[in-house]
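My current task is to audit a protein record that another person submitted. Alongside the sequence sits a line of tokens, each denoting a local backbone shape. Where you disagree with what is written, explain briefly why. This is what I was given:
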Amino acid sequence: MRGLGVRRRAGREDRRTAGHRAARGRLRPRARRRAHGPPSVRPRHRQHDHRPDSGGDRGAVRHRRAARRGLRHRAGRIRRRALLGLPADRHRRAPPCRTGRGLRRGTGRPGRFVHVLPRHRGRSRPAAGLAAGHRDHLRQRAERTEPDAHHAGHRPHRDRRRAALRGRAPRPAAHPRGHGVGGRRAGRPPGSRRVSNDLPAGRIRPPRKESTLWLLDELVPDSGANNLSLAMRVRGRLDAAATAKAVQLLVERFEVLRTVYHRDETGLLKSVPASLAVGLEEAEHHGDAEEELAALTAFVAAPFTTDGSPLVRALLLHGKDADVFCLALHHAVSDVQSTAILRAEFVSLYEAVAAGEHPVPAEVPAWHGPGTSEESRQYWREKMAGFRSAGLELWCEQREQAVTTLRGDEVTHVLSPEAHEVVRRLQRELRAPESVVLLTAYAVLLAAHGAGPDLTIGSPVNTRPREAVDTVGYHSNLVTLRLLLERNISFRELTALTRRTFMEAMAHLDVPADDVLDMVERDGSGWRNTLFKHVFNYVPFVEDQRTFSIAGTEAELVVVENGFSQFDLEFFVSASRESATVRAVFYTGVLDRADVELMVRRYDALLVTAGAALDAPLSSLPVWSPQDRTVIDAANATDREIGLPTVLAGFARRAAADPAAPAVRDGDSTATYGALWSAAADTAARLTAAGVRRGDVVALLLPRGAALAASVFGTWLAGAAYMPLDPNHPAERLAYQLEDSGARAVITGAGTEAPAGYASVPAADWENLPEAPVDTAAAEAAGPGDLAYVIYTSGSTGKPKGIPIRHRSLVNHIVDYADRFGVAGSARPTGWLSTYSFDTSSLELMMPLLHGGHTVVLPDAARTDGDLLAAAVTAHDIGFLQATPTTWRLVAREAGEVVAGRTILTGGEPLPAELADTLLAAGAELWNVYGPTESTIWATAGRMSADRTGRVDVGSPIANTRVFIAGPDGRPLPVGVRGELCVAGVGVASGYHERPDLTAERFGENAEYGRFHRSGDIACWRPDGRIDLFGRVDRQVKLRGNRIELAEVEAVLLSHPDVEAAAVVVVGDPGADGSLAAFVRVPGRPEAVDELWDHAHRQLPRSVVPHRFVAVHAFPRTGSDKVDYLALAERAAAQHGPAVGGGAARAAGDDLTATVLGLFTELLQRQDLDAGSHFFANGGHSLLAATLAQRIKDITGVRLALSDVFETPTPAALAERLRRLA
């Protein structure tokens, strides 16, 4: 029987002979050929060459150097042969086993036996390297290796080879008699604790990291988010009986595989029975590869339970030409390194059973890992001080659904040769390992997509020490890498920071991630708020070992994922000498596949860009892929010749060509082109007489109609610019606009008069004026660079701000709209519905007049009366009509059928998807448009399709207009990344009238796009070059750490059939006791308010559901006729009280709330809590939440999901939830 001394002597002998052969260059080719697999996995050979070395001192030096090389190679072969299920030395004969029989190793060479199954080394190495090559959280690839640490400065492979010289080479896991040298149980790593196979009835509590896994299973029920797999395809048939026997022997051999869990009133417990039966499922499969993979995925994804059932299950799938064996394991008893060990063990067991052997595998006790040091805990407390996870969200994330599923998907991308070459070059130039370079680029990629600048990234690591490298079980951790990406830091500097951060973290990896999470202030109540949302896993190069043999039959590993993702995004970079592959796994609840595909391409491009600008600030590095540039450049290719200098010149040509043609119909009267021109000329003459000069501003205080149209053109003929005033606006607002604009005159009509101190010019009586000949030369009074109009919109200070628009901007847009919307050449009139104090009204007036058409003035009441609108549209056979979504929603029920065959324009507010579907279903040609007043009416337009899905976009830029999406630093963002929409081009105003401070804030210059306006709207490019809107920047709020788009909440409320309008505001302090209040208009059905909480709850995360719903008859409006959210917030604050429709906290005095408060006090051990105290902000965590839910069930009989505690984390809110669930 070989003891430690025998192994040491063998090591010395091998060292001598290996060095001698290497020095002489006489390794035998024949011996090499006998090896299995590629050169890196050839078995060592013990044929000795006893010829003495006679090289003198030089020969001795060569001898020692060669010996070291030979030893390193030999130790590597031992490890790699073990991975393949081959004996460490096929030429050594093992001692007999206690059954008197050997276990045939399946080498094809008779008489080679070992007494028990050895503890084969997996391909992993100690966890000293970045992103240990296993997926220890969700998905895993059985062929993936555990990481080298060489890239972080460690040399674990060298240390292990040296350890082999000292007698710590791989050896059997257990001695036949159960003891090795010194009486210690062979195969049990130092520091491991023996868990008895015959535990008494009393069970033990699992460590926290295992409990956390089960907590996740409870939060996402019926999921296999913690399931791992080991699968192999065998070219032929596997014997079912031998397979079942091998599985059972595997479970008997490894104590950890017999671990089962139970949940009772005391919490989660575990035990290890002396025996545990694990059956083998068999199924037939004769479909294609996709169907086979789907069957395997379903098998792996099936959830495990805490009712004492096994956490291992096996499947044998019989195919047409091959069988697939699949082992599914819960993460609590395994990790990825374990699957590599289990594969080798299973192969050996199967071969022995199939050969008729009767192996008695020695049991391998569970190893429970090291404890944590106070030094490490202190390091993490200092390292994570002040960290807030709210800054980890990406700007391309979607709103998470109400129910968290953790459903995952993945995208695979092979790095371009250019990127791979850059990484190899940067290794040398930056003196950094490949993994650190790749991780640094990943951090920059995340930052470019909105995460940070205080950024955390998770990196899976293997926590096994060298002495326990072959243990099976859950022995991994996610180490947190916290990086501060300062704006001016360079890629070179960030690479150095990344390596330093990683090295520090690895020195303190004994603290589990859950313990580190306790040291961080929790943002919000959502249970997915964590240390990090993004993971980086580097897999170093190893030669391909996916193929192997089992019982003489060819086999290969099969990658079977469980279909889930616990993190928003995980990058797995597998690097080899020739190439590198990125596998991006993502949670489909927050990221789209198209976004992730673009991200991996940008990662590739970023590596190339960073390699060429190592010392440039990160803020100057464009994180764009070639596809981003192609999409955005194509959308912005809008150059076009307009052909007219001004709208006035176009109108003059039409009036001269056909003066008798109708221009404006208003009730029973119709103004012709000639009459309109005559009235305009008369107006110009009177303005000039009143002292108006070129460049002055003239106010128009008139209702819509022919007189207003004549006043517009007359003002232009006088060389002035007009400013529309709404007669319905308050006198104070009108007075401010007149004073601020410096208006020289006011054109008034019947029922209106100019304020005191302003010259009043009556509107021309167009009906009684003689028609004058059209002088087209007079239109030259207005040039393209002259001011066309000044329009006032609401300002953040409460005072409206004036926006001057020039003629070149106006004519560009009017001509493009007329062509785009089919108004040019149409015989059907345009409806003039919009109030003229809105710039959109000029579209309805001027488009037809540039092309010989006419416009019909629709009554003001038609904006809210569907019957009236339908009658007018039908009576005049109107072909083009525009209105806001609010108007369309109000009139759609009555006027919906009349829009068939007509061009419908909607803009000014987000267009709800269901409203778009309604209008499209009615047969309308629907266009959705967008544009701030500062960019001249509409800047983008998109025709809606009947087969559209998802979010309603706003199209793409119109003629001579360019758009870009900017990040907070003003840099243009690529496709799919949300930022502030900026508009450039001919339509952009010069600034705000007499407001240089505000002009500097909202207008800017860009080297590529020129002068632009910051719209304040959140948007992103779609892959098709169209634009999605997500609401206003100032309507994006953070409520207790949860980012909320108020417009998104409103959209959900508007999807209720009885809600015609909705507005959501924040009440209270967003960082403390703030809540959402929803104001809704539900005409005729006030009881619908009580349905809205359930309606919102079904579609929104709990943290986003409004706590109060208030029915209103009408919304307060701003001067520009938009919803006055400030007034609503003030009203909500004044009416603060219990919510309507559920979801709000009740008074603290009721019995149920008091009971829950008592449990909070007991579990949190705090005496200063009240009904509004936040569970997690006062020391609560996930395990305490599970205990709380159990205690509440025991007392009330109502079963709470753990997510209920996370989403209603105060006694009052939780009591209200209990009432709803009771």
